[in-house]
């Protein structure tokens, strides 16, 4: 089977809610990452076969196939198509999978995969709330088929995070220590300049806004839980954020014709589902599946990115898979850096690729929980 190579990866800095990117139109946000990707790779943009970008809540500035709009806003050739996909938090990781599959099938040679999200302008679940205001049904409780299968119970990421903490015996203090370490790792990465190669500054904005230098275990201990009598609170949850990210995948033919240098290859890609009410446990089953399919073990992986939707998600995943936390989210995760939903998948992979290059590691595994109880897994192999 033909290989799919990563030849470029870039991201904007991540802006916090109502921060530096809050007023930027979503299409312009995506266009910035796309322009930077084309400039850094030096590829003729007219040779790109497709642009696949993840985005959730595609209303307002994110409506109307924003992947296509972002490409055009960037001033790039209008004969290149674009498509916007939604696999919830894993949308842009799925974009990488679709792009790689296009290359590996032999039907495409150069495909852009990325994602964008302005959560300041369009809050999470805006599309559903607007639909409700217009009198449309909700996705779950008002579906007779859903209620017949899963009962009339609450489907909520907050409830799921609490259920996971309880089942895997993860205390509030465990989660707070993990969250504090996420901030410390992100701050260290910023101070050491680890993100500089992967970030395309937006004007003078060049440093992720999320990491909190003033956070402490004592401050976290004073935060109120998100649910009554719960353990999970805002300090151990991902931050609402704004960002865009993009990668360029290429076939061997494109590498030869355009004089490109493959930085990594897609070693494995898969996606699995789990109980949608538990919702956030998908990475456990998906990681086990990926390792079984590849014949690899946890010990074969040099770096892991497991999205920090909530601290309990990563801690339960690590307990079940045996992934050593010292190799997980080594430059901080979404608790510190933020979770701009549609952009997070390729943001994580961009960071993972650059960290493999910095440290000389070979294999990196990325996974993330997604709405509906799903999870993608991508294993990349560094080549440079």
Automatic annotation (TrEMBL):
Keyword set, alphabetical order: Acyltransferase, Transferase
Ranges for domain Thiolase N-terminal: 5-252
Keyword flag Secreted: no
Molecular functions per Gene Ontology: acetyl-CoA C-acetyltransferase activity
Source superkingdom: Bacteria
Name of the top EC class for this enzyme: transferase
Thiolase C-terminal domain ranges (all copies): 261-382
Positions in coiled-coil regions: none
Pfam families for this protein: Thiolase_C, Thiolase_N
Gene3D superfamilies: 3.40.47.10
EC number in record: 2.3.1.9
Matching NCBIfam families: AcCoA-C-Actrans (TIGR01930), PRK07801.1 (NF005865)
UniProt record similarity statement: Belongs to the thiolase-like superfamily. Thiolase family.
Protein name, entry field: Acetyl-CoA C-acetyltransferase
Taxonomic source organism: Nocardioides marmoribigeumensis
């Amino acid at each position: 089977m033909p290989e799919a190579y990563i030849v470029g990866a870039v991201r904007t800095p991540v802006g916090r809610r109502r921060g530096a990117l809050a007023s930027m139109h979503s299409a312009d946000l995506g266009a910035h990452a796309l322009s930077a990707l084309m400039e850094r790779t030096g590829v003729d943009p007219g040779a790109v076969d497709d642009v696949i970008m993840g985005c959730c809540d595609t209303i307002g500035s994110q409506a109307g196939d924003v992947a296509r709009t972002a490409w055009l806003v960037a001033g790039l050739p209008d004969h290149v198509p674009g498509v916007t996909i939604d696999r919830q938090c894993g949308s842009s990781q799925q974009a990488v999978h679709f792009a790689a599959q296009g290359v590996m099938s032999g039907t495409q040679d150069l495909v852009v995969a990325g994602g964008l999200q302005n959560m300041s302008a369009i809050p999470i679940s805006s599309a559903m709330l607007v639909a409700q205001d217009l009198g449309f049904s909700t996705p779950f409780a008002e579906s007779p088929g859903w209620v017949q299968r899963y009962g009339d119970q609450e489907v909520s990421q907050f409830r799921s995070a609490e259920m996971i903490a309880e089942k895997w015996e993860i205390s509030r203090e465990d989660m707070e220590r993990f969250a504090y370490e996420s901030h410390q790792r992100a701050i260290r990465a910023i101070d050491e300049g680890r993100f500089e190669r992967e970030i395309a500054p937006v004007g003078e904005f060049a440093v992720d806004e999320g990491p909190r230098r003033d956070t402490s275990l004592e401050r976290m201990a004073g935060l109120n839980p998100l649910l009554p009598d719960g353990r999970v609170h805002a300090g151990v949850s991902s931050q609402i954020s704004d960002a865009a990210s993009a990668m360029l995948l290429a076939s061997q033919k494109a590498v030869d014709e355009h004089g490109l240098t493959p930085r990594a290859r897609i070693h494995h890609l898969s996606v699995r589902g789990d109980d949608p009410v538990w919702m956030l446990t998908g990475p456990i089953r998906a990681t086990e599946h990926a390792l079984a399919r590849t014949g690899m073990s946890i010990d074969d992986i040099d770096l892991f990115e497991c999205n920090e939707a909530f601290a309990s998600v990563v801690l339960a995943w690590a307990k079940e898979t045996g992934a050593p936390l010292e190799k997980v989210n080594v430059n901080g995760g979404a608790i510190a850096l933020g979770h701009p939903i549609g952009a997070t998948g390729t943001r994580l992979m961009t960071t993972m690729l650059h960290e493999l290059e910095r440290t000389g590691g070979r294999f990196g595994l990325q996974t993330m929980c997604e709405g509906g109880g799903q999870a993608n897994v991508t294993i990349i192999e560094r080549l440079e």
